[in-house]
From TrEMBL:
Enzyme class: hydrolase
UniProt keyword Repeat, yes or no: yes
InterPro entries associated with the record: Cytosol_ACT, HOTDOG_ACOT, HotDog_dom_sf, Thioestr_dom
GO CC term (a single one): cytosol
Species, as recorded: Hipposideros armiger (Great Himalayan leaf-nosed bat)
Keywords: Cytoplasm, Hydrolase, Lipid metabolism, Repeat, Serine esterase
Region: Disordered, residue numbers: 340-376
Keyword Secreted annotated: no
Protein known as: palmitoyl-CoA hydrolase
GO annotation, biological process: acyl-CoA metabolic process; fatty acid catabolic process
Domain HotDog ACOT-type: 46-164, 220-334
EC number, as in UniProt: 3.1.2.2
Subcellular location: Cytoplasm
Gene assigned in the entry: ACOT7
Length: 376
């Protein structure tokens, strides 16, 4: 194992406290030996990978003991924000903070439970002129048996915002690739996500309207909204919301929608690409709305929209800040997959969204089947 980053505090070697608390809430940062050898200033060699570890507690999970998908997403974003901000400040120049712009589709491969330790490993895999790609792997560890399982893989994109003016995007220092193919593959991923972000923003004018006296299994019956006042604890030191905080709230709303629809224990199965269209500032009121769009025999797709309202700033209107599709599955008390009540779309818009959701479902099903086939 590579030696850890020397501790700048009184903590034991290898442990850096992210907040006051017991040792099992610490972030363990493991760096390559070459990176840890010299960290005297911004121009020093910057590590390209870190690992954060934390034990899962009861308030991280649902009543069945399964850790909330939003808790995992928040940890994934924290690791990505640390490594990308470090990289963007690795050269002398204007100081900046990395802001989350997009999370590619992520699948929850295995459930995580209370008492297990989450190991979140993040690595920078590509940089463009104004963005950083971070790939993250999450592993759960049963500390009683030593068993480890891969639970998540995610790809995140960050942009560096100037500390002097958070509306100004700075240039990103280039990353060094071990082979030329890595840069070419990264460029293809960058162009694909850029196009998808633009397409998502164009179709994001929709809003979730309340429905009076909805019938069971309809969209209106399970749709839910959460209104949240953005406080200092939700934000970076520079006054805008952590992407992980937003993702956690989105997962909570999606979970409520799923639970209302099937009335059983539910868990996050996957999250389609999450696009962050604009920053959310401290003091804003955000409305997170979720509605069912599609059901298969054993899964539910839920669209989640995040709207930000400046409230006290008359110069700016309410705007769409983020959007994504979450997929949930229904579980029995024994953890077995249960059939999902079929959604009954009523309006033309609901029928259209149902067909679009069906298309996404079939596309991902075909992709998984293709990956499962043995290679020649």
């Amino acid at each position: 194992m590579a030696p850890p980053l020397p501790s700048p505090s009184m903590a034991p070697p290898g442990l850096i406290h992210s907040a006051p608390g017991p040792p099992d809430t610490c972030a363990l940062l493991q760096l390559p030996a070459a990176a840890a050898a010299s960290m005297s200033g911004p121009a020093a060699e910057t590590p390209s990978a870190i690992q954060i570890c934390r034990i899962m507690r009861p308030d991280d999970a649902n009543v069945a003991g399964n850790v909330h998908g939003g808790t995992i997403l928040k940890m994934i974003e924290e690791a990505g924000a640390i490594i990308s901000t470090r990289h963007c400040n690795s050269q002398n120049g204007e100081r900046c903070v990395a802001a989350l712009a997009r999370v590619e589709r992520t699948d929850f491969l295995s459930p995580m439970c209370i008492g297990e330790v989450a190991h979140v490993s993040a690595e920078i895999t590509y940089t463009s002129k104004h963005s950083v790609e971070v790939q993250v792997h999450v592993t759960s560890e049963n500390i009683l048996t030593g068993t480890k399982k891969l639970t998540n893989k995610a790809t995140l994109w960050y942009v560096p915002l100037s500390l002097k003016n958070v509306d100004k995007v700075l240039e990103v220092p280039p990353v060094v690739y071990s082979r030329q193919e890595q840069e070419e593959e990264g460029r293809k991923r960058y162009e694909a996500q850029k196009l998808e972000r633009m397409e998502t923003k164009w179709r994001n004018g929709d809003i979730v309207q309340p429905i009076l006296n909805p019938e069971p299994n309809t969209v209106g019956y399970s749709q839910s909204s959460l209104i949240h006042l953005v406080g200092p604890s939700d934000c970076t030191l520079h006054g805008f919301v952590h992407g992980g905080v937003t993702m956690k709230l989105m997962d909570e709303v999606a979970g409520i929608v799923a639970a209302r629809h099937c009335k059983t224990n539910i868990v996050t199965a996957s999250v389609d690409a999450i696009n962050f269209h604009d920053k959310i500032r401290k003091g804003y009121v955000i409305t997170i709305s979720g509605r069912m769009t599609f059901t298969s025999n054993k899964s539910m797709e839920i669209e989640v929209l995040v709207d930000a309202d400046p409230v006290v700033d008359d110069s700016q209107k309410r705007y769409r800040a983020a959007s994504a599709f979450f997929t949930y599955v229904s579980l029995s008390q024994e953890g077995k997959s249960l059939p999902v009540p079929q959604l009954v779309p009523e309006t033309e818009d609901e029928k259209k969204r149902f067909e679009e959701g069906k298309g996404r479902y079939l596309q991902m099903k075909a992709k998984r089947q293709g990956q499962a086939e043995p290679q020649p």
